[in-house]
Amino acid sequence: MSVNLARTAEGWWAATAAGMVRLALPATTTGELLADRPALDGAIADALAAAPAQARPVGSLDLLSPVTAPARVVAQMVNYRSHAMDSGMDPDRVPPAFFRKTSHSITGPLGDIIRPAGVEFLDYEVELGLVIGRDLPVGSTVAEADLSRYVAGLVVTNDVSARQIQLTRTQFYESKSYPTFTPVGPWLTLVDAADLDRLAELRLTLAVNGEVRQDRTVADMIVRPAQALTLLSRFQPLAAGDLLLTGTPGGTALTAPPKVMEKLAALLPPATKWRLFFRRQAGNPRYLHDGDLVTAAIATDDHALDLGAQRTRVMGRSP
User: Fold this and answer.
1) In whole angstroms, what is the distance from residue 146 CA to residue 193 CA?
2) C-alpha span between 106 and 158 (Å, rounded)
3) In the prediction, which pLDDT does 269 show?
4) Which of 35, 155, 279, 281 has the highest count of CB atoms within 10 angstroms of its CB?
5) Per-residue pLDDT averaged across 143-163, rounded?
6) Res 290: pLDDT
7) Cα–Cα distance between 77 and 80 in angstroms, integer?
8) Region 224-234: what's the mean pLDDT?
9) CB-based contact 234:216 (threshold 8 Å)
10) Is residue 107 scored above 60 in pLDDT?
11) CA 232, 234, 106 angle in degrees (round to 5)?
12) Omega into 70 within 30° of 0, i.e. cis?
């Protein structure tokens, strides 16, 4: 059965029927918290049995990201069929691909997304995050039945992206790694094998100023978590507290141009092609603007497995 944990400057908290109860644990990082699972499970049991008087309303807590930096932050590229089609790709022919983000990009679930000066065409990508619970050495093979051995928890994430940097410079690392470009939380939802069996039922939704932009379940995913971890471990070890973002569904601001436009653009010099492309994108109202409120949530439709919702606001930074 899943358990929702939260982190504040004071420490770690467990969500109970009466409210949030502080865990009596010294861990300051997500890795430390998950590395000693017997101590964590004992502290959660104590919290669930605590008197209601010890509980605090969640609204009284200043929630931080439940994934702490430094940590490895890895992301899957084009991993939902709907996103592949939005990107002008055949979902059955998209090769598995990964990229890194800086852990410095991690921010909390209720803060601001800071748009750096000069960065335009800011986009959103709600993603299911897998929080690793134990060492995953290079060369590991993860079977579906073994997924709970390596995945300790799930989190809501938003892979914020500066599209003109990503596309014109082919720079995924920079375009997705500015400070505050990875909101995480509100919960670190600890899961067991039965919870992970319901992964395909999790629904990812993202809205901007109340308008739903993304709404798909994990069933739309191309490379599922066990296979993704196996492929990633060919070259990348992971450890407790590391984070894997598993891709975003369709509905982002960026979409591929019509095929005719792509063929014509291929005949142009790169500088001219991108100038024309972003001139056209400037008329797209779906990109994020200063003051926009972004709400991202992940849960099964019956809310038996609910990772919570984050509310972040886009703020510009003057030169």
Assistant:
1) 8
2) 10
3) 63
4) 155
5) 97
6) 95
7) 9
8) 98
9) no
10) yes
11) 30
12) yes
Cα separation, 289 vs 81, in Å, equals 27
CA separation for the pair 308, 305 (Å, rounded): 9
pLDDT of 53 reads 87
Q: What is the CATH number of domain 73-316?
A: 3.90.850.10
Strands 161-162 and 182-183, by their bridges, are unpaired
Q: Is the pLDDT of residue 318 over 60?
A: no
Mark 21-48 as b/e (b = at least 16 C-beta within 10 Å): bbbebebebbbbbbbeeebbeebbeebe
- Bridge partners (DSSP) listed for residue 310: 296
Integer Cα distance of 178 and 160 in angstroms:
9
**For the chain, how far is it from start to end, CA to CA, in angstroms?**
48
Instruction: Answer yes or no: are the C-beta atoms of 31 and 71 closer than 8 Å.
Output: yes
Q: What are phi and psi of 243, to 5 degrees?
A: -130, 130
Predicted local distance difference test score (pLDDT) of residue 271: 60
187 contacts 300 by C-beta, under 8 angstroms: no
**Where do the domains of the chain lie?**
3-60, 73-316
Mean pLDDT across 290-316: 97
Contacts of 44 (CB under 8 A, 6+ apart): 3, 5, 14, 23, 190
The whole-number pLDDT of residue 282 equals 75
